[in-house]
Design brief:
alpha+beta; Immunoglobulin-like; Arc Repressor Mutant, subunit A; five-stranded antiparallel sheet; five-stranded mixed sheet; 21% helix
């Protein structure tokens, strides 16, 4: 590390570590190793990674894989925006499809030329021709054709410098490739392997792998300097300001001035995250992207800030900084740290803890040519490399008085006098009438001292010209114009006393002994609390307000420019306890930080008015409601969706100078008239949009509160078929037809309504008739069931009577056989036979049977086929599904007689053999038809 505050040190060297952001492999989802960078015209960063091509837009990383390649070694974007890549066993290019990058391999073209290779190490463009440096040869690609360039030997490396192509061949030296030929450069055949050819004003510097620099000018080669003692150079580039940046294998990153004097050295735990640097790239913000052995560092080299913290050996929160006798002293809560600027410059050493200074340091005071340490343990004189204690009570500050060899000190218990006697400083007495802790002591003039207390206001103390106390202490608080008693601090700005308070900055009116608002600071800073205020060079004023750093620079007398935007980079680092700003000289302002210190260089210009853009990164549309989103091409054709689809638009701004603080605002025209509130969210979704044409607009705001150009994306929510122009024309035509046909339709409607009413009436009548028929049928069914029951009962009774009489008849016959009165018994039997043959029972049966079966017997009698009475009875009994046994009893015949009767009946009815007689008789009843 190098220091630039001393007049003895080189003004072009840097001190401290730049602000940086580290990206791990987990952040970008790739391999730990990266090989090369390039940046597209719209600002997107591309990185050759072992696992593929990385793309960074300032918000997200994206990885593109390459088929049949395990590692990508090089990436280059040509003048047309095509991204060429090369790696292990693969070579080709990416182009933008509208929804991402697509890869085209050139491997087949090389196979056709019988070109074999395993690695591609470099790609560059000259006059629309692309050159590929494979491991031993040079290839060119133009007009969609690739060819092998015949070379004078085994190719080691190639370089494009100021539109000239140089190649180094093993044992052959360095050649320039020009007009299709290789032209040897004199005196270069024995030069060691080159890593870079760097331009200078007169010619070129050849930088070897071992760090040796050779100057090539006017066809002469001359050794210039050895930059490294025992290390290897992996990469070297010339920066836009003319400096040279070197990446080494074991010693980190080195930056040299154009004459190769050292300017900055960063290595592991001292400014970068790894000691191995594989590649360096300066982006369009003049910051460095550094490919490490493990991850990527973004070094904010363009900013006028560096950090002095534990990486440089400074431990703890910063409290005060002081430059004295070619050394920088830094006080923290862990002690006093010191570094000699010459040692820093020559040995690249870091800070060391001053012996016996452990503990809380408050202030470093310089009294003439002597330096004092104000410490929690007391006050000490810094004498060479040791501390000499001059006071035992915790001391805030020692200040010089107008009287030689007399110093006032504020400690935990008040104000003390210190005098130098016999070349030693001693505490001679205490200031009477004041026992308050006295941290802030400021002389208004030689005889007036102001002491500020954290929560009790401010005190004015009067002395004579010999620093003798006049026994007068005046106390001022909220009764004298301050808004409250807390946070009051006194400052002497270029001979003028001002007092900060909880709300606003005040002046003291000596006549009224009251405080009133300072109009100058009210105009520039308002009423918010200012916690630190200090005069700078050229009448400037530095301040800290609400944890935000700023400076008022005088443009012309009485007119100041307020500068705050650039300091947004460091506000998050600033300490919030006993803040301090130390202005050392024109290019060194030290600000106490939560971790060490921040060094600000006011002389370093950093252009914040850089134009930038916002890019529509992707558009995703769902196929249907609640379905997954699918990326679609972003092209000139207007996107069309329906209102059931959702659309998600992602955007980003590749403004890397403070990309962590980018904000976005958007609107959807014509739906939104106003822009949305600023947000760090870089996507917006829309669902169920009404039909119509829309334009999505988005813009970004960077860390400097500057807005980007507006980017837009038009799309259309299409009208459905039933709402398009043709449908509307059809609707209008139908409307006209409807108007014309209204009278006809009304008449037709009247007829239809009358018809409906008539049908409803008819239906109502039909329903009622059906209900009546239903009730009548139910009544008939009931009567039929009753008659059927009566018929069954009568039949069964007849059967029983027959059985009974037949039983008696049998007994009488038996009695006759045994010798009874034959004549009498025969007379009884004859009477019984007469009873059995009596046809009265049949008349009753027939009556009931016809009631149930709709005059069935009468119809049988009237058939064309003549049936005997016995056959009609048989048909009736069969219709009732009686058994042959039951029929035999009723007809008073045998079972065989019943079968013969059935046979004769079948014959008369002319039934086929397969037809069932009973089923036939039942079917006659159902059909109510007698043939």
């Amino acid at each position: 590390m190098f220091f630039d505050v001393s007049s003895q040190s080189n003004s072009n060297t840097k001190f401290g570590v730049p602000l940086r952001v580290h990206f791990s492999s987990e952040n970008y989802q790739g391999s730990i190793q990266n090989w090369e960078f390039d940046q597209s015209e719209n600002g997107l960063l591309y990185v050759a990674n072992n696992f593929g091509l990385l793309e960074f837009d300032g918000n997200k990383w994206k990885k593109y894989n390459i088929p049949d390649a395990t590692k990508i070694r090089t990436v280059m974007i040509d003048s047309k925006g095509t991204i060429f890549v090369g790696g292990q066993n693969q070579i080709g290019y990416f182009w933008e499809t509208g929804k991402g990058l697509q890869f085209k391999s050139l491997r087949k073209e090389l196979d056709a030329l019988n070109v074999e290779f395993s690695e591609v190490w470099k790609i560059f463009e000259l006059d629309d021709e692309i050159f590929f440096n494979v491991e031993d040869k040079l290839l060119s690609y133009s007009n969609n054709q690739i060819k092998k360039i015949d070379s004078p030997g085994f190719l080691i490396s190639s370089f494009l410098v100021k539109d000239r192509v140089f190649c180094q061949f093993y044992n052959e030296g360095i050649f320039e490739y020009k007009d299709g030929d290789f032209i040897a450069l004199p005196q270069t055949n024995n030069i060691e392997r080159l890593i870079a050819i760097l331009p200078n004003k007169q010619g070129y510097y050849f930088l070897s792998e071992k760090g040796k620099v050779f100057e090539f000018k006017d066809s002469n080669l001359q050794f210039k300097i050895d930059l490294l003692q025992s290390d290897t150079v992996n990469e070297a580039i010339q920066l836009e300001n003319g400096d040279y940046a070197l990446g080494t294998q074991n010693n980190g990153l080195l930056i040299f001035n154009s004459d190769f004097s050292k300017k900055l050295h960063l290595t592991k735990n001292k400014g970068i995250s790894d000691r191995t640097v594989k590649s360096i790239y300066e982006d369009n913000f003049n910051n460095l992207w550094v490919a490490l052995n493990n991850g990527i560092d973004y070094i904010k080299l363009s900013l006028p800030f560096t950090l002095i913290n534990e990486e440089l050996g400074v431990e703890g929160t910063g409290y005060d900084a002081h430059f004295f006798d070619n050394s920088l002293y830094l006080g923290t809560n862990n002690g006093l740290f010191v570094a000699n600027t010459a040692d820093l410059f020559l040995n690249e050493d870091h800070f060391s803890l001053f012996p016996d200074s452990e503990g809380q340091v408050y202030k470093i005071s310089q009294i003439e040519k002597e330096l004092f340490l104000n410490h929690h343990e007391g006050a000490f004189k810094i004498d060479g490399h040791e501390l000499k204690k001059i006071h035992d009570i915790g001391t805030w500050n020692l200040i010089k008085t107008s009287k030689p060899n007399v110093v006032l000190g504020g400690d935990y218990k008040g104000i003390k006098y210190f005098e130098k006697k016999n070349n030693s400083w001693v505490n001679t007495k205490d200031l009477p009438d004041l026992s308050e802790s006295s941290r802030i002591l400021v002389f208004e003039n030689d005889t007036t001292l102001w002491m500020s207390h954290g929560y009790r206001g401010v005190y004015r103390i009067k002395f004579d010209k010999n620093m003798k106390y006049k026994n007068k202490i005046e106390h001022f608080d909220d009764r004298h114009g301050f808004p409250s008693n807390i946070l009051i601090t006194s400052y002497n700005l270029n001979g003028k006393m001002v007092f900060t308070s909880k709300s606003g900055i005040f002046n003291f009116n000596k006549d009224s002994l009251n405080f009133s608002s300072n109009q100058f600071f009210d105009n520039y800073l308002g009423k918010e609390h200012v916690s630190e205020l200090v005069s700078g060079i050229n009448n400037s004023v530095y301040y800290i307000q609400n944890q935000n750093f700023g400076v008022l620079n005088e443009k012309k007398y009485g007119d100041f420019d307020k500068k705050t935007k650039i300091f947004k980079h460091i506000n998050k680092y600033i300490s919030d306890d006993l803040q301090d700003i130390s202005v050392v000289n024109n290019n060194s302002v030290f600000i106490t930080a939560k971790d060490g210190f921040i060094k600000y260089d006011p002389q370093k210009n950093h252009h914040i008015e850089k134009k930038f853009s916002t890019i529509i990164r992707s558009v995703k549309v769902s196929k249907a409601e609640d379905s997954l989103l699918i990326a679609i091409p972003i092209n000139k054709e207007k996107l069309k969706i329906n209102n059931k689809q959702s659309v998600k638009i992602e955007f980003a701004s590749p403004f890397y100078d403070g990309f962590e603080d980018l904000k976005y605002s958007y609107r959807l025209k014509p739906l939104d008239e106003k822009w949305s509130k600023w947000t760090d969210t870089n996507e917006k979704s829309y669902n169920h949009l009404p039909y119509g044409d829309y334009t999505f607009e988005v813009k970004a705001k960077n860390i400097y509160d500057l807005e980007s150009k507006v980017s837009s994306f038009p799309f259309q929510v299409s009208t459905p078929w039933y709402a398009n122009w043709y449908a509307k024309t059809g609707y209008f035509t139908l409307f006209l037809v409807f108007i014309i046909l209204i009278p006809v339709l009304q008449r037709k409607k009247y007829k239809v309504e009358n018809s409906i009413i008539k049908k409803e009436k008819e239906k109502e009548i039909r329903v009622k008739n059906e209900e009546i028929d239903k009730l009548y049928n139910e009544k008939l069914q009931t009567e039929l069931n009753l008659k059927n029951d009566q018929l069954t009962s009568t039949t069964m009774q007849l059967i029983k009577n027959k059985e009974f009489i037949q039983g008696i008849q049998a007994k009488i016959i038996t009695s006759i056989d045994k010798g009874g009165s034959v004549q009498e018994l025969k007379r009884i039997i004859s009477s019984i036979d007469k009873e059995l043959s009596d046809e009265d029972y049949w008349a009753k049966f027939a009556y009931h049977f016809d009631q149930v079966h709709g005059n069935y017997l009468e119809k049988l009698s009237s058939m064309n086929i003549k049936l005997s009475p016995r056959e009609i009875k048989l048909a009736a009994f069969l219709r009732m599904n009686m058994s042959s046994k039951e029929i035999a009893k009723l007809l008073n015949i045998t079972h065989r007689g019943v079968e013969l009767a059935r046979y004769r009946l079948r014959k008369k009815l002319k039934l086929e053999r397969k037809q069932n007689l009973v089923e036939y008789l039942i079917e006659l009843d159902k059909n109510n038809t007698i043939p």
